[in-house]
Amino acid sequence: MVHDRVYLQEYNLPSSVAAMITKMFDDSEGQYYVITINSLLPESKRKAVLDHELEHLYFGDYESMMTADQLEFISLIRDTASIDFDEYVEFINDPFRGDLVG
């Protein structure tokens, strides 16, 4: 899922928070997202955190009903798995998978 309007800001956040995404709505702009990156992080870490947050938007995680912990776990799988995560989820949810795996 690609979003047309994503704004970035840096702000001093608590050390336990690397970044956060806020879904916004404005009568003139409609829906948009603001990614807030912790400005206290080193520059190299801020770039990695931004990529991570953009990945959440790309995969539509913000619209998910999962908890933040669940979404972070899925993100970790996406980053480290040697299989395509979306294909794996489709396979697990396929009611006929028993026919394929005996």
How does this model look, in words?
The protein is built from 4 helices and 3 strands; from the N terminus they run E-E-E-H-H-H-H. The protein is an alpha+beta fold. It has one domain: Arc Repressor Mutant, subunit A (Orthogonal Bundle), CATH 1.10.10. A 3-stranded mixed sheet has the order 1-3-2, with helices on one face. The termini are far apart. The mean pLDDT is 79.
Q: How many β-strand stretches?
A: 3
What is the string of SSEs from the N terminus onward? EEEHHHH
CATH topology type: Arc Repressor Mutant, subunit A
Whole-angstrom Rg = 17 Å
Mean pLDDT: 79
**What summary fits the major beta sheet?**
3 strands, mixed
Output the number of helix runs. 4
Overall outline: globular
Total number of distinct structural domains: 1
**Strand order within the widest sheet?**
1-3-2
Q: Spans of 5+ residues with little confidence (pLDDT < 50)? A: none
| Helix percentage | 40-55%
- Category by helix and strand content: alpha+beta
If classified by CATH, what would the architecture be? Orthogonal Bundle
